[in-house]
Design brief:
By secondary structure, this protein is of the alpha+beta class. The chain has one domain. It has four helices and twelve strands. The strands form two sheets. Strands 6-7-8-9-10-11-12 form a seven-stranded antiparallel beta sheet, with no helix packed on it. Strands 4-3-2-1-5 form a five-stranded antiparallel beta sheet. A hairpin with a 3-residue loop joins strand 7 and strand 8. The chain is globular and about 70 Å long.
């Protein structure tokens, strides 16, 4: 009986530690708990390069707080590309609502890549420009086509929008994408794989169904994943990483 109560106390303590960050995110207004998706703002921020003005090829990766209660825990991420001289960006993302309504979760759209995610302000994680980016776009499009979870979506622990973005990043490590700890699903490698490169391509990770794992990389530093929620430290970036809150300290370069 004593062992049972010891285990119970440890489980309660673990739950408190894991949920502390999401509680802070709600208290700080990061999660829009009472938002209505039908009226939520999906307008462009106006910060993305204008294809009519900027002719060079561009790759950008964005993230914004997930909608509703999910925003207490996670961000939603997407990838946008524009070839040289193209009249518009093409945005690739995985959306759960499409899957829940009987369609494919994969979304491909033309237009501004910096639209708010149902009221949440997007943040740019990667911005690559220049002639060499054209070849990166070829590889990104190939990685999108090869994404292994085109017809399935799970909010937790994955595969979800962040699983998709991480999968493409691993296939194109030159992007150097460091996803935040709030990108829940980035550690989901599938049911038959437990090891992979880190999304930035500068390290490696071991993950059991996205529920328990560890990641070590030059860009990511050290991250530990427990039940899909990540803790970590980035010594080079002088930052810590907390569930629900994200990166605290200097922003990645």
């Amino acid at each position: 009986m004593k062992a049972f109560f010891t285990l119970l106390r440890r489980m309660v303590l673990l739950a408190m530690v894991l949920l502390a960050g999401p509680v802070v995110a709600v208290a700080g207004g990061l999660a829009r708990m009472n938002a209505d998706w039908r009226t939520a703002d999906r307008s462009s921020m106006g910060s993305a390069p204008d294809p009519a003005v900027v002719a060079e090829p561009i790759v950008q990766v964005y993230g914004a707080r997930a909608f509703g209660w999910r925003g207490a825990f996670a961000v939603h991420t997407w990838i946008a590309v524009k070839r040289a001289g193209a009249p518009a960006f093409t945005t690739y993302e995985v959306i759960g609502w499409r899957y829940w309504h009987g369609g494919s979760p994969m979304s491909v759209r033309q237009g501004p890549p910096d639209r708010k995610w149902f009221g949440a302000m997007p943040e740019v994680y990667v911005d690559r420009r220049g002639p060499e980016v054209e070849a990166l776009i070829d590889r990104i499009e190939a990685a999108v086509a090869a994404y292994p979870f085109h017809d399935i979506y799970r909010t937790w622990p994955g595969p979800n929008s962040n699983t998709f973005t991480a999968s493409v990043a691993r296939a194109v490590p030159e992007l150097g994408l460091e996803l935040p700890p709030t990108a829940i699903g980035k550690d989901y490698l599938g049911a038959t794989s437990i090891a992979a490169a880190s999304p930035s391509g500068t390290g490696f990770q071991i993950s059991l169904l996205g529920l328990l794992g560890i990641m070590v990389g030059v860009e990511e530093g050290l991250e530990v994943n427990v039940l899909g929620l990540s803790f970590g430290i980035d010594p080079l970036g002088l930052a810590i990483k907390l569930p629900g809150i994200g990166r605290v300290g200097a922003n990645p370069s």
